[in-house]
Amino acid sequence: MELLPRSPAEFGSARYWDRFFRQRGQRPFEWYGAFPELCPVLHKYVRPRDKVLVVGCGNSELSEQMYDVGMCQDIVNIDLSDAVIRQMRERSASARPRMSYLLMDMLHMDFPDAHFHVVLDKGTLDALLTDEEEATLAKADQMFAEISRVLQVGGRYLCVSLAQAHVLKKAVEYFSQEGWVVRVHQVASSGDQQQFVLPVFVYVMTKFRKMPGSAAGILEICPEEQDRPMRVESSEQLVAAVKDRQHYALLCSQVSKAPCREQVSLDLCDKESGKPRYTLHVVDSPSVKPSRDNHFAIFIIPQGRETEWLFGTEEGRRQLAASAGFGRLLTVALHREQPYEGMAGIQAELSGKVMELAPPGLPARQQVPFLSVGGDIGVRAVRHCGSSPLSGDFVVEDVKGDGTCYFRRLIFLQNRNVVQSEARLLAPTPLPGQKKKRKDKKKPSPAEPPGAIDKSYLCCEHHKAMVAGLCLLGGPDALPGELAVLVVGLGGGSLPLFVHDYFSQARVAVVEIDPSMLEVATHWFGFCQGERMQVHVSDGLDYVAKLAAEAPAQYDAIMFDVDSKDLTVGMSCPPPAFVEKPFLQKVKTILKPEGVFVLNLVCRDARLKESVLAALRAVFPLLYARRIHGEVNEILFCQAGPAGRRGPAELGARARALEGALRRPGRPWDSSFALADMLQAVLVL
Asked: Which GO terms describe its biological process (predicted)?
């Protein structure tokens, strides 16, 4: 039986609807949900004494149900199909005496001005506004003008719609320009199988008398989970907010029907501020054999650990899901700007929403476990928030790591999933004879760090590899003695601090373009300047170019650890200008003949990476590479001198000798930092 039109234009044809309702018979045809879903919204805007007009009523039961429950009984229904009007009159003639059905075109209504308190439209605007052709838009304008004419001031036009972007935009712009208040409600679904994947919305347009020179009307959106509307500033923002909810509905439909081949991610935002509160990743493990108890679990990532490989990368999350033994694992990252009330509070807040992302085949009333590391949500304390014209917004925060250790981190908020700098904190050491503070004593100010920086510990694996590259200096039996080292890129200062402290004869020059980073490193990461450590606030490109012209061949080692601010390039470290051949020639000029140039390369673009390597080979005959496990970082060691290539055995021997020299009595040394291990996997390029 053919019930759908051959073309969208037929939606506006009386002949089509006559044929449609004759073929369908007495069975009600409900556009966009039934009365139980719409009732909570309608109750807010329809009063028992209101005079209600339903345009394009069809054979929907909506008017009958509103009448029967006593929501409102003075209801006039109009439609351009003679067949359906006769059907509906027969159905309600004796049971609903105050309700009427009239054959009428809503574009040319016979009612007097200001005759109704409410105009109700369930899918009629969507059926009319099938495209954005000039003739179609003119019909929409005519429909809106007629609705405006028959509504009283203070009356409401309630439009039930799927909120396609062009439909919503047209309605919002028309009525807001007329000075009406426009509010969009998302209709809560019943949980049953829906006719449409997309959610249903109700536009509530409240008529106000337009004043000369008045601004556009108020725009608001009211999501299904809350009653209080949120104000938006423009029709574009309102359309975008609706589109976000439509995308979420499509995502839920997608993940509920089949396993996800790729990991799906989304943000859940705070109702008040609109800022992200939770970031969710849906991770399916096809290798896990399903049983009743292992379909689905929620994993709460401890605060501050979302950047770790296991939680912050696709491969890490895949490994986490497989080891957890669940067919679908939903990982949840917590955002630093948001307060949380412990695991129980998070579980209560998320329990309803996460079930919308449950896998297909989840047994009814299945208990879904919430998991975490150690059973808690971790600790994160934001110590400092700042902003810089060069680096943008940034934060310094202390987080609890795996175990009892705490770490201080610098995060650039434009790339919040990457730790820019990190240092381990030393636990406060009580003075001899000092008693342990009672728990009820006044806590330290949040601005005070809980302990000093552990300068002996390099948190970043790529920093350890960069330090290990100093083994390439000197002759076959020589170890680095007096060193002149140039570090471009300060960050928190961990790398130059380690070189300064453990290479006691090293003179370290640091170049940092952003003066804010020098302040952060000094105040929050224990960095300090002195006779053997000087910071130059300058662009690294300019500083190297000036040295190449004035003072060549002065550095034993040059280290580049510079991030790129341009996130559109497939290389986040260093900026592309730092690895162009003319600039690399200048780096070679200021390097001593047997010196080493160490570069932290973070490049996801294979073609771009190959061009970088080609430029390095053209300038430096000797090129070694050390890949960092679980990270994109690759440390490149470049030499131009006559030392010749060193094999793994020689590199290992030099590394062990250097480590022995650095491990001095009374000086702390990180037992996990083995220079030989750092060089064991070095590749000759």
From this structure: methylation
Q: Give SS3 for 172.
A: helix
DSSP 233-265: SSHHHHHHHHHHHHHHHHHHHHHHHS--SS-EE
Give the DSSP per-residue string, 627-680.
Answer: EPTTSS-EEEEEE-STT----HHHHHHHHHHHHHHH--TTS---TT--HHHHHH
- In the block, tokens 């694996």 appear at 461
Q: Phi/psi of residue 347, each to 5°?
A: -60, -40
Q: Which amino acid is at 558?
A: I
| Residues 448/455, Cβ–Cβ less than 8 Å | no
- At 636, the pLDDT band (50, 70, 90 cuts) reads very high
Lay out the sheet containing 380-388: strands in order across.
380-388, 392-400, 406-412, 419-425
Domains, the chain, ordered by start: 8-250 (3.40.50.150), 260-341+354-362 (no CATH), 459-684 (3.40.50.150)
CA dihedral 241, 243, 244, 249 (to 10 degrees): 130
Dump pLDDT digits (tens) for 174-229: 999 999 999 999 987 654 444 556 789 999 999 998 777 666 678 999 876 566 78
Is residue 9 over pLDDT 80?
no
**DSSP 8-state secondary structure symbol assigned to residue 157:** E
Q: List, for residues 381-399, the tens digit of each pLDDT value.
A: 889 999 999 889 999 999 8
- Predicted model pTM: 0.68
| Beta strands per DSSP E along 413-454 | 419-425
Q: Distances from the Cα of 204 to the Cαs of 63, 109, 158, 220, 601, in angstroms? A: 18, 21, 5, 10, 55
